[in-house]
């Protein structure tokens, strides 16, 4: 069985390098358990340095009270460190008139007529853009869309301009390129508080190769860098990692922080049983994740285009379904590993097949072992839905990435919609439900249940890699925040185990769209992670995200 996930790699806590640990218990402190208001002796300057004051003064005071209460009541010594510098740490003086290269993930689904079918990622990018505009920056907004090979008109970012302009309340200017003299001219003519959207950065192959010369060209457009592209933070590309070598400071945007804040907390100490549902079509990038998931989860449900590689590996015929031939051995070893680990790995027992990849294809439901030649599996079948629902009923935490079928075609949307509805029902019963990935989120939006999920993540692959315990290159590359001393001296809290405090605001507190990263209202949690988490002799307080503090006591 899976052991609890280690925070290493989820967390930005540099010293948390433990490899083994016991499951955590969670103690929630009510506001009344904090110190008295007389202990609110933090000065505004300290709060500002903590990065809380600008975002939410009340929250800042609450944090200060808690920090103070630990310090005063227990003699804890502490150093406050903002592990990664935040855009919220940059003031008007830092930003006014500055050219800011802002990398977002605006990789939204478009239909055949180039209409946006789900704008979650655009809405999620708005708080950081607005913050920069309000502070008089010139925003050079950059994103990829899809996986183009060279310049491909259908992957242009042009269709995003009207929605972006509408959400921001200003006319966004669009460049036809992402580097070069025309772009430079447009940048030079930008007034303070305006936004220039660059063309798809992936029109250059150098982007994904993280070519240093290309990164230098992108960086030369700006004075400083903000990465808010959580969905692409697991990619070391020129616009996510390379540019940080040439732009100082390089800081995290609000969405990136918010995603880390939620996901680090939720998946490092999941309520169990913990299930993952993995589907979609990015088989080669996600099948490798399954190996690590087997170390973390109790139940693993597979659907979407993922399953046919597993069927074929077991000697079944899969017709013309999506298969990654070079992953067949891996699929076999994953099945064996799941068995050895005692993880329930469930593959669909029946599938909906089609005679062509089209919305008007002929379809039928067949057992997974009976896919005829010339037919392809485009959805999971009704028996599988029943089995999956039964398994999900036993869980307390579920992370879902990748639709169960080609949900864009109504005929093949039933399995995905059934899972979305099941997760919505379970959310209402207190199960933690985390949905990640552009298409998975679009599916949940389509069913109209996004608002009831515990967390809607803008990154599928990125959230899975976090869950794996991997460090995200887009995050690692950002500048470290400056440590701030809280209270020198002292001898620790007198509690014989590592402590993490976690404090998170609700999404509304930040003016972030509700569908993105909803969370509980401000409260302080103490998570005792057992002796395995002892970080070392000193007590350290870290901020891992905009509104998250980690207090580690040795
Ligand atoms: N059986 C299948 N065959 C081919 N494509 C599939 C299948 N099931 C799901 N898909 C496709 O997978 C895509 C989403 O995959 P992916 O990008 O991995 O998910 P996400 O964006 O949620 O991370 C959808 O466009 C969907 O049509
Ligand atoms: O859609 C994305 O990832 P996701 O489908 O894993 O959520 C991101 O925009 C990253 O895209 P990529 O997987 O082509 O690098």
TrEMBL record:
It holds the Pfam family PGK. Residues 10-40 have a biased composition (Low complexity). Its cofactor is Mg(2+). It comes from the Eukaryota. GO terms for cellular component: chloroplast; cytosol; membrane. GO terms for molecular function: ADP binding; ATP binding; metal ion binding; phosphoglycerate kinase activity; protein kinase activity. Monomer. This is Phosphoglycerate kinase.
């Amino acid at each position: 069985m899976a052991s609890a996930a280690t925070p290493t790699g989820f967390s930005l806590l540099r010293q948390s390098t433990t490899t083994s640990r016991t499951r955590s218990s969670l103690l929630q402190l009510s506001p009344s358990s904090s110190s008295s208001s007389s202990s609110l002796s933090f000065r505004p300057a300290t709060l500002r340095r903590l990065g809380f004051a600008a975002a939410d003064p009340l929250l800042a005071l609450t944090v200060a009270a808690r920090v103070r209460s630990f310090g005063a009541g227990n003699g804890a010594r502490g150093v406050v460190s903002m592990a990664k510098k935040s855009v919220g740490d940059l003031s008007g003086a830092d930003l006014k008139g500055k050219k800011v290269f802002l990398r977002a993930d605006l990789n939204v689904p478009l239909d055949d007529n180039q209409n946006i079918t789900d704008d979650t990622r655009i809405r999620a990018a708005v708080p950081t853009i607005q913050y920069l505009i309000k502070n008089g920056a010139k925003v050079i907004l950059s994103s990829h869309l899809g996986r183009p090979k060279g310049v491909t008109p259908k992957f242009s970012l042009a269709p995003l301009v009207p929605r972006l302009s509408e959400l921001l309340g200003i006319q966004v200017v669009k460049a036809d390129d992402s580097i070069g003299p025309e772009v430079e001219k447009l940048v030079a003519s930008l007034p303070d508080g305006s936004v220039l959207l660059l063309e798809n950065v992936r029109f250059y192959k150098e982007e994904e190769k993280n070519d240093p010369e290309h990164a230098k060209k992108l960086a030369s457009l700006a004075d400083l860098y903000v990465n808010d592209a959580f969905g692409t933070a697991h990619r070391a590309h020129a616009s996510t990692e390379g540019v940080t070598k040439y732009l100082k400071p390089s800081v995290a945007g609000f969405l990136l922080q918010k995603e880390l804040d939620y996901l680090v907390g939720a998946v490092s100490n999941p309520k169990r049983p913990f299930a993952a549902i993995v589907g979609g079509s990015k088989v080669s990038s996600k099948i490798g994740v399954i190996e690590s998931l087997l170390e973390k989860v109790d139940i693993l449900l597979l659907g979407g285009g993922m399953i046919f590689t597993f069927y074929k590996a077991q000697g079944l015929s899969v017709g013309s379904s999506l298969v990654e031939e070079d992953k067949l051995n891996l699929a076999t070893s994953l099945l064996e590993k799941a068995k050895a680990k005692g993880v329930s790995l469930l593959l669909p027992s029946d599938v909906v097949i089609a005679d062509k990849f089209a919305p008007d294809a002929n379809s039928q439901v067949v057992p997974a072992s009976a896919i005829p030649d010339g037919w392809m599996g485009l959805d999971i079948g009704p028996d599988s839905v029943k089995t999956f629902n039964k398994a999900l009923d036993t869980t307390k935490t579920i992370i879902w990435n990748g639709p169960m079928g080609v949900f864009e075609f109504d005929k093949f949307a039933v399995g995905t919609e059934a899972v979305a509805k099941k997760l919505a029902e379970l959310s209402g019963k207190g199960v933690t439900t985390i949905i990640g990935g552009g298409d998975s989120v679009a599916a949940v939006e389509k069913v109209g249940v996004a608002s009831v999920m515990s967390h809607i993540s803008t990154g599928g692959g990125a959230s899975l890699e976090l869950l794996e315990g991997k460090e995200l290159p887009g995050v690692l590359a950002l500048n470290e925040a400056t440590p701030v001393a809280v209270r020198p001296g002292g001898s620790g809290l007198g509690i014989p185990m590592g402590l993490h405090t976690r404090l998170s605001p609700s999404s509304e507190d930040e003016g972030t769209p509700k569908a993105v990263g909803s969370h509980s209202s401000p409260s302080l949690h103490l998570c005792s992670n057992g002796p395995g988490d002892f970080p070392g002799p000193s007590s350290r307080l870290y901020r891992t995200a905009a509104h998250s503090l980690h207090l580690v006591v040795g």
